[in-house]
Amino acid sequence: MIKRVIKDIILNSLNTYPVVGILGSRQVGKTTLAKAVKEVASPDAVYLDLELPSDINKLQDAELYLRQFKKSLVIIDEIQRMPSLYPLLRALVDQNRIGGRFLILGSASPELIRYASESLAGRIIYHELGPLSLFETDTKQFQNLLLRGGYPNSYLAENDDESFIWRESYIKTYLEMDIPQLEIHIPSAQLRRFWTMLAHSHGQLWNASKIAGSLGVSAPTVRRYLDILESTFIIRQLQPYYANTKKRLIKSPKVYIRDSGLNHTLLRIRTFDDLIGHPAVGASWEGFVIEQLAALLPENSEFYFYRSNAGAEIDFLYIDQQNQPVPVEIKYSLSPSVSRGFWNAYEDLSCKRGYVVYPGNEVYPIGKNVSALPLDMLETVLM
Fold this sequence. Notes:
With 383 residues, the protein is α/β, with parallel strands linked by helices. The chain contains 16 helices and 14 strands. 40% of the residues lie in helices and 17% in strands.
């Protein structure tokens, strides 16, 4: 089993919070992680999978059943299938408020699950589990992770064909089963068309009217589609950074499909050779690196992109502990160079250091405290 970086964080949270939530998309490894946590934190913990009719049956009288386990950890998987449990968990926690009473796993954000936010406010801490990251796998063999993405069953498949078939099945199951179970009633074919459009515009500015026109629906409707994909951890909206400058800045977010493997499946990219010859390779690399940076940053960190109407642009920007903006440009080239737009943005924001992440092996200076940085040295960005 691949050890997940977040495991120790969750163990620490169980010592403090009555309820700990692990959120993430389907098949990302939440159940495997919860069972690994169980072995360390509470080997006698009770595990309930709300996809199993037998476990759902145990909760016919949920209060009577859960009251038995005042001193044991209870793990509830796929909590979004039974949102009515949230008020009961709150009442049970308030009667015996100790750390580590419930570990809940969900495939949708709290905002999408009815009762989630208001019922357990002040009693729960959420942690998001993403797909496998570079530093949880082999940093020297990033090609497989880039091509197949970080879902464990896809990344660990015997070959590229098996990985592609698994991802295609994942997309079908997500659209035809997972979304309806959240009481979201959108035709699966329509949502797949929307998702495919996002793959073809991966890393571009969000343009609701353009996509709405292509789909034959209204702009508010495609906005709803986007929110659903974001709330189920499929896409990321990277927000623009509003600096205290006199520049006119772009206000629309950039939209990325978070898992590179799912993105490639929608684009019908099956092999690494297909990828490097595809026009989308640069955008795919950009989204992939952004996800690796997001995985390295502390939880709840904020990060952005920067673009002005005059053409100044930075792919990725975060604020370091000294409250300084750190720009990261992302280039799929062994001899990366940055544009005038990057240097203009660098000056606009009075940056002190910056990086250009590329798929090479050497660190070398580009100018003005900006360095070319190999992918396996991304942690340098955070120092």
